[in-house]
Design goal:
heterotrimer, A mainly alpha (332), B alpha/beta (242), C mainly alpha (354), A: 332 residues, mainly alpha, two-stranded antiparallel ribbon, 67% helix, B: 242 residues, alpha/beta, Rossmann fold, six-stranded mixed beta sheet, four-stranded antiparallel beta sheet, 25% strand, globular
């Protein structure tokens, strides 16, 4: 049982003589604190606090999950992956297909992440590897990949794909209903952050990766296969994107351009955060989540995004190297 | 009046006190060399003067004006000019264009071509004027950058290890170039490792150690100073152990 | 006299391919061909050619920002959209009489410029590095698109002009020249062709002069080595902002011409796909030269349209492949590589090892 009615989906902007005939992204179905108002009684403080917390958690999870794949790749390799949204789309499509085929949803989500990671490894080997000296060209090339992926999916799978329902239903607090799945997403975001922390600090791969990033030639001299580290790092970023896609797949309409729903938030979080996942992405997501949740609950989703963008533009004027640059500066 | 003066200049990076209460004064027309063992804070002081870092506290005066908060390009416009350690040139552009970019706002358009030609001769780069700057030899790149720095007609020329990576002959030629510029009245502040170069050009030497001014004087006084030798030797001993 | 000569001598210089009598003779031949073209074609085809021409301005602007200035802006379509919508709102409200459409054109382009100044101030004065500049400008574009897409309701109107959400604005008057004996309405036909062609020639030559001027010198210096450029006393932020604003105005000009051409503009003209296309034209053509950008844009657009017959998705996949291959195999652009190849036998010895 869902707490709200699905919105009608309008895919195409009508006849267009323009070159840009691609369907627009769907607006993902929002959880504003409950559309189902049971009683018009005034909210007490506890309810209000829970509602604010819930919205913050929702926004935080969305920002962290959208951004962490992008942030890992940017932080470790200095590459901005403009096909990030398409890796998310890939994860979502695989998840939903697997779920339709009868796989339990959690396994389907992991499968989505895995497939995205494999595609990521392939992309790194075929394209990205040759462009490390030219960061701007990497953006351009990944944008080309994004075009290919979006339009290729449109050709092969059509303009939309039947989704799966949001699991777990809803729960009530103070006469308002909330989606339980959103809480699961928040927990998932925290788990992903913790897992990344463990990965980069406690595993052999993590240590090698950090060594490669800090002093590439030294790492190479010490026998680290730096090319493999880069491939694995890119695959990790792509896999995290796929995971985000899989996790959000049950809450969205599946269309080939669904990646654009995520990338703005992902970009913004990475720009504000800077090059470090833990000192950058996580605190940036927390700060931006407050902005977004506040603006969204006051003026609606679009203004949540506009608020985010304005916050970013102001932040970069003040802190050109992002939050992590600011936090790390004192250590330099 | 000093042309460049730093007053109680401090720079901290986190807990690290890299520039510690440095008072420095350059008289107009002198060639002043800044030396010191690795990690003495020479580069930081250089960057503070240039405006690439802002000091934690203290003042920088240039030609009597407080420039402590100025951006680098504003300092350049007041009459500073700089040559970096790694040749800062426009590699994908021709030698002539490199000079044109440096000089275009300092000369009348009608005279620009002739002035560029004169400078090319001075730098012994005339035969290479239409080559890409990135294809010059290392020494030629260094001279091109000195040429760009000099073409601004600065009151104060800042040189960051101008002879790094040069052969002894090139080092000597660079020294002569600096002496000729100085003879025309230019003040020069150079960070330098190469003592042969320092002996050739310096009229005054400041030794930095652990971020502080350790000693100051003429080349002969500094060379004769046993404490200075000790800190260099200490460095040598440390690196030998390391 | 001398100053005038110097001004026009900048039509050729180190920042532009093509110099000497042979090049300019070729230029005149192509121009004469372009002028004669409508005589041998029908109104519909000519109108379609104008459609190609409208995009060239945006491409040239991007070449200035990216190819010459070294800053990758993905936000060109934002300025395109802002100017296009502005033109629509102005002309729907005030009509086309007394040459007002031309005033609307100028105002719309200025409006795009104003937006570029605001955005550019925060970006360049915040010292945003290359990679971030791209994604922030792209984010701005995407948010603008989403904003315009949700303006379907009747409450979204400016004066008489409804914004119409996804479906976009339509039915604004085309550009209209006041003309003795009755206004000349520039429908997509021969008249519009000559007007846009003339604009294109003026902009192309004007940009050639600009990039070979001291301003252009500093711009390429910033691309090559921003620290050195600053240490020569240039406030590099102002130069970058200047290029950004000029590029935005050219994108705005494209937006106005496009809107006037089809009497139509939609939010999707600012979307992700639309934003990618200028990058494709300019990258494939050869971003670091105006001529290769211009030629490349027209060629890629023709190929694109030829492919669109089989469906625009297929055409876009081909564009994506083209972009990836260009970046991997000919980073300076296909037209640029081709131009170098042609120029080789003609080049004089002393230009040396380019």
């Amino acid at each position: 049982m869902r707490g709200r009615a699905p919105r009608p989906f309008r895919a195409c902007p009508g006849p267009t003589p323009s070159l840009a005939g691609a369907p627009l992204p769907p607006r993902y179905r929002r959880t504003r604190p409950s559309p189902n108002r049971k009683a018009p009684s005034p909210m007490d403080v506890g309810t209000l606090a829970f509602s604010a917390l819930y919205q913050f958690g929702d926004a935080f999870a969305f920002l962290v999950l959208s951004a962490c794949g992008l942030a890992v790749i940017f932080g470790m390799m200095g590459v901005i992956n403009l096909a990030h949204g398409e890796f998310i789309m890939c994860g979502a499509y695989v998840t939903v297909s697997a779920a339709h085929a009868g796989l339990p949803l959690p396994l389907a989500i992991l499968l989505g992440a895995l497939v995205a990671a494999l595609v990521g490894a392939l992309v790194e080997i075929v394209v990205i590897r040759h462009l490390y000296e030219r960061p701007l060209d990497t953006i351009v090339a990944t944008w080309g990949l994004s075009l290919i992926a979006t339009q290729g999916t449109l050709i092969l799978l059509g303009s939309t794909m039947a989704g799966v329902g949001t699991p777990f239903g809803s729960f009530q607090v103070g006469g308002y209903s909330y989606s339980l799945y959103r809480v699961v997403l928040f927990v998932a975001a925290l788990v992903v952050l913790a897992a990344l922390y463990a990965l980069f600090n406690w595993t052999r791969f993590g240590v090698m990766a950090r060594a490669t990033i800090q002093v590439p030639h030294m790492a190479a001299a010490l026998g680290v296969d730096t090319r493999r580290v880069y491939t694995l790092t890119f695959a990790l970023g792509a896999g995290l994107a796929g995971l985000a896609g899989g996790l959000y797949a049950p809450t969205m309409t599946l269309v080939p351009t669904m990646g654009t729903t995520f990338i703005m938030e992902a970009f913004v979080t990475v720009v504000v955060g800077g090059a470090d996942v833990f000192l950058g992405t996580a605190p940036a997501a927390a700060v931006l989540a407050v902005v977004k949740a506040t603006m969204t609950s006051l003026y609606g989703q679009l203004f949540g995004q506009i608020g985010l963008l304005l916050a970013v533009i102001i932040v970069i004027r003040v802190l050109p190297r992002g939050l992590s640059g600011f936090l790390l500066r004192e250590r330099a | 009046m000093a042309i460049l003066e730093t007053r109680a200049l401090n720079k901290r990076f986190g807990g690290l006190h890299v520039t510690n209460n440095v008072d420095l004064a350059l008289e107009p027309g002198e060639v002043h060399c800044l030396i010191g063992p690795n990690g003495a804070g020479k580069s930081t002081l250089f960057r503070l003067v240039l405006g690439e870092h802002l000091p934690s506290s203290g003042q920088i005066l240039f030609d009597g004006e407080d420039i402590t908060a100025f951006k680098p390009f504003q300092r350049i416009r007041r009459g500073m000019s700089v040559k970096f350690q790694v040749p800062g040139i426009f590699k994908a552009l021709s030698v002539r264009q490199n000079l044109e970019i440096a000089m275009q706002h300092h000369y009348e358009p009608a005279h620009l071509v002739a002035e560029i030609g004169r400078l090319l001769d001075f730098l012994k780069l005339a035969p290479d004027a239409d080559r890409l700057a990135g294809n010059l030899s290392h020494g030629q790149k260094q001279w091109l950058e000195i040429g760009m720095a000099v073409s601004l007609k600065p009151k104060l020329l800042l040189l960051d290890e101008p002879t790094a990576g040069m052969s002894p002959e090139e080092t000597h030629a660079t020294g002569e170039m600096v002496q000729r510029l100085n003879a025309d009245g230019m003040t020069v502040l150079a960070v330098e490792h190469d003592m042969a170069f320092v002996r050739q050009v310096a009229q005054k030497v400041t030794v930095l150690h652990l971020g502080q001014v350790f000693a100051q004087g003429t080349v002969d006084e500094i060379v004769a100073d046993e404490r200075v030798a000790a800190i260099y030797l200490g460095q040598v001993a440390e690196t030998a152990h390391a | 006299m001398n100053a005038t000569f110097r001004f026009f001598s900048r039509l050729e210089g180190p920042q532009t391919l093509g110099r000497g009598p042979l090049f300019w003779l070729g230029f005149l031949v192509v121009l004469a061909g372009a002028c004669a073209y409508p005589l041998f074609s029908d109104g519909y085809t000519v109108g379609n050619t104008v459609y190609f021409f409208t995009w060239v301005f945006m491409a040239l602007g991007l070449s200035l920002i990216w190819g010459y200035g070294g800053a990758l802006s993905f936000g060109q379509t934002a300025f395109f959209g802002i100017a296009g919508y502005s033109y629509g709102v102005l002309t729907i409200n005030f009509g086309a009489a007394y040459g007002f459409t031309l005033v609307a054109l100028v105002l719309a382009v200025l409006f795009a410029a104003l937006f570029a100044v605001l955005l550019g101030y925060f970006l360049y004065f915040g010292r945003i590095s290359g990679v971030f500049l791209g994604i922030v400008t792209l984010s701005v574009t995407l948010v603008l698109e989403r904003f315009m897409a949700q303006t379907a309701g009747p409450e979204w109107h400016i004066g008489k002009a409804r914004l119409n959400g996804f479906n976009g604005m339509s039915a604004m008057p085309p550009l209209t020249l006041p003309w003795p004996g009755g206004d000349l309405v520039l429908f997509p036909d021969v008249e519009l062709y000559y007007v846009v062609l003339a604009l294109m020639v003026v902009v192309y030559l004007g940009l050639r002069i600009l990039v070979n001027s001291p301003f252009g010198n500093v711009l390429v210096a910033i691309r090559e080595n921003p620290e050195r450029a600053e240490m020569l006393g240039y406030d590099i932020r102002k130069y970058q902002l200047g290029a950004f604003v000029i590029g935005a105005m050219l994108a705005g000009l494209s937006g106005v011409l496009y809107t006037s051409w089809g009497q139509y503009i939609t939010p999707s003209s600012m979307g992700m796909t639309a934003a990618a296309l200028p990058i494709v034209w300019v990258a494939v053509g050869g971003r670091s030269d105006l001529t290769t950008t211009l030629v490349g844009t027209l060629v890629v657009l023709s190929v694109f349209q030829a492919l669109t017959i089989h469906g625009s998705q297929y055409a876009l996949v081909v564009m994506g492949v083209l972009l990836v291959l260009t970046v991997l195999l000919a980073p300076q652009g296909l037209a640029f590589a081709f131009a170098r190849l042609i120029a080789r036998p003609f080049r004089s010895r002393k230009t040396g090892d380019v």
